[in-house]
Amino acid sequence: MNKLIIAFVFSLAFVFSGYSQKEKLSNYSFIVVPKKFDFQFSDDQYQLNSLLKFLFNKHGFHAYFDDELPDVRRCDGLRAEVTGDPNFVWTRVTIYIKDCEGNVIYTSEEGKSKLKEYSKTYNQAMRRAFESIEALFVQQKEVRVLKDFEDSSERKEEKKVEAEVVSQKDNPLHLPVSKYANYTNAGKSFLLRKTNEGFSLYEETAEASDGLKYTGKVFVVEGVVFFEDEKEQRYIANFDTSGNLTVEKEGGKVTYSKSN
C-alpha cells in the first residue's frame, strides 16, 4: 500500500511539474533558434538547426532564426541552445531553453543515438531529446510586433499631449470644454457651469436653498473673455492653460483655481 501511495505522489508531482513547465513556456510568444550551435563547425550543419526550428513550430512554438525575427520586444521570447556530445558508442544531445537574460528555464531529456553516420545520429538524438518538449503541449502566445504596443501607457501619454496641443490650437482662449468644472478661491468652493451664452459661476454654500449661490457669468465678445458679477459689473477675464480663471477687478486680480 505504501509503495502505491509513493508511486501516486510521484506521478502527481510529475504531472504538476509538466503543467508548470507548459504554462511557463506558453507565457512567451516566440523562440529563437541559432543557425550554429557551439559544437557545430558551420551554419545548420547536418541540418540540425532547421530540424529543431521545424520541431518547435510543429509543437506549439513560434520559432525563428535570428535573421527572420520580426520587430519584437526581445524579452517576449526565448532562445534555444543545444549541446552535442559524440563519442565511440553514443551521440548525446540536450536542448536548453533560455530567457532573454540567459537563464535556463527548461532542460530537455537527453536524446541518444548509436547510429554511426554523424548526420543521422545527430538527427535521431535531436528528435529524441525533443520528445520531452513535445510532451509538454506548449501553446505560445501570439507574436506581437512593436507597432502593436503603440497604445501602451507611454504612447497613450504621448497621444494625450498631442490631443492637448490640438485642443489648444482650436481653443486659443483655453475655455473649459466640460459642462461642469470645480474651482476654489479664498478657501471657498465654486462651480462653473457651461451655458448657451458662456458659463455661470456659483459659490457652493449652505445658505442657498439648493447649495449654490450665483456670483456671475463668463462670456466672450469679439475674442475677449469677460466676467460679469451678480451686480452686472463687467471685468476683463481670462483662462490660463491649466484652466484657472482670472478676473481683473479694480482692487486687483482675483483668481479662481481649477480643482481636479
TrEMBL record:
Organism phylogeny: Bacteria, Pseudomonadati, Bacteroidota, Flavobacteriia, Flavobacteriales
Naturally occurring in which organism (per UniProt): Halomarinibacterium sedimenti
Protein name: Uncharacterized protein
